[in-house]
Amino acid sequence: MKGTMLYGPGDVRFEELDMPEIVEPTDAIIRVSVTCVCGSDLWPFRGLQPMNGPTPMGHEYCGVVEEVGKDVTSVKPGQFVIGSFATSDNHCPNCTYGYHSSCTQREFITRAQAPYLRVPLADGTLVPTPEMPSEDMMPGLLTTSDVLGTGWYAADAANVKPGVTAVVVGDGAVGLMATLSAKQMGAERIIVMSRNPARQALAREFGATDIVEERGDEGVARILDMTKGIGADSVLECVGTQQSMQQAIRTTRRGGYTSYVGVPHGVELSGQEMFFSHIHLHGGPAPVRKYLPELIKLVLDEVIDPGKVFDLVLPLEQVAEGYKAMDERRAIKALLRP
Amino acid sequence: MKGTMLYGPGDVRFEELDMPEIVEPTDAIIRVSVTCVCGSDLWPFRGLQPMNGPTPMGHEYCGVVEEVGKDVTSVKPGQFVIGSFATSDNHCPNCTYGYHSSCTQREFITRAQAPYLRVPLADGTLVPTPEMPSEDMMPGLLTTSDVLGTGWYAADAANVKPGVTAVVVGDGAVGLMATLSAKQMGAERIIVMSRNPARQALAREFGATDIVEERGDEGVARILDMTKGIGADSVLECVGTQQSMQQAIRTTRRGGYTSYVGVPHGVELSGQEMFFSHIHLHGGPAPVRKYLPELIKLVLDEVIDPGKVFDLVLPLEQVAEGYKAMDERRAIKALLRP
Questions:
Q1: Do B213 and B241 lie in a common domain?
Q2: ipTM above 0.90?
Q3: Which pTM does this prediction carry?
Q4: Over the stretch B289-306, which tens digit does the pLDDT of each residue have?
């Protein structure tokens, strides 16, 4: 089969790869129905994250089970399944506490931008849908594998509850999903920081009540001005840079909640600033597996329509164009069809 | 009157100061019954915190109201009162959310190591006792003004609940009060990191079930070993150094809670380490005012005996010896009688 490899900054290749095979008795092989490019794929694509040689890419996926190892009991060939970007056994202490993405047996999925994928710990990682979903459900279901789960975690970790004022820092796909999630969890006011008209429009569709175009100190001043000088109850940091983290911390009210869900790059937090900010800080890799059953149901019941975040659909062999379009911010998120 | 001034590292003087007077109509003047030296006083005493010239010292106090400004309605001359080290109006949004130490009108108390003290925002800052407390209640009541309130906040911010495993990093007075607080909130196991036999004994008296003498990486390894490799539910950081913060973060389980209640000195947190630790982080200056009514009641009802933390009692004029004894770790905490 052919799949996606990143050779270095800007160098995505769609090339011959070995067909995946069952390695451990707990593995499953799935035929990928749809996959996509993640914002986190852009860090190494932009040369902003070190690489150890050519790397197979992709960690968002859903598809049909082809084959399972002999110890797999909860999914079977022919079932449509969705899994997290992080594998989990679903029973270790970290999983039991709801932090599946820190499972003691965790591996990070890679190689999902390909027609077939090996998923370790299949029983703990994959969640089947009740029946084979229709084609138009695919984009929405695919989002539950990472980008929606991550946005959902941003809202959950920032303690979004009915009536709160939330700020979303970042208008990438995760920021947009965080907006949808905050809305779904009952936030009364959702302020999204964005400068891009198309993304602003989608943010409003997903539930944003206000848009702030200013950034840095000006952005902070604007949010404080909009919240009577106090700051927001919940601030969802969906970027992962020093500037976005500072912006998030400085716009949270004393005793409020700041979440961060994108891997921080070059971020150092001052102990004294954190201390006097009086915020609650929580985040990390989203425990997507915990949310999958609930999110799959919300998508299938058409309560939410997160699939709108895909504004570019490409055949898998054009994956390089997907990276390029996202890198140049011509696309929010590229869906790939094997 | 004579009071306490710090002129520079190691240079504490007890010298003639102006008698405090009502400045604002919301002020009260109190005659200080007992005061004490705080661990935070040791930072400038040790030359580890910059000073702007000679500084009046002291922020822990309780005593009898002498005089009140014309707008003060909730306390009156002759009442015994206790206040926080931070003033608060008790009605701004930050106070309403329970973060009195970030009150929008906050001032930090200073000059309390003296016979008389001016307390701004008296109505919002001071809490009277139901009657004049007996002499033997004074040490316990004094702790509620800062050190107990801060230890209590450490436990509260680290989400200590019945049944949890808690780790206390630091065996200073705040660490010992955090131990007592964790016990009072129902922690099942309380591991205190301490190398000092006298402090270990007091920690055990306050509720410690285990003592760990190792520090740094060895200390982390020991705690992980004691918690099946998972880490503790609640870790209470009561020191404020880079090493103690790292130790706290690295001994908290994924999804667990780390609190920090001592002003961080030279602490920088790595965004990536924080991210993958999956912890909840919360802390800051303790909102002592919020806890005062509850803590005063626990002391007066003799449910807790936090006054034991004072292992040195001096007449106020010997305040310099109090600083010295604490600096040299000959004393845990020095109580001063004007």
A1: yes
A2: yes
A3: 0.97
A4: 999 999 999 999 999 999
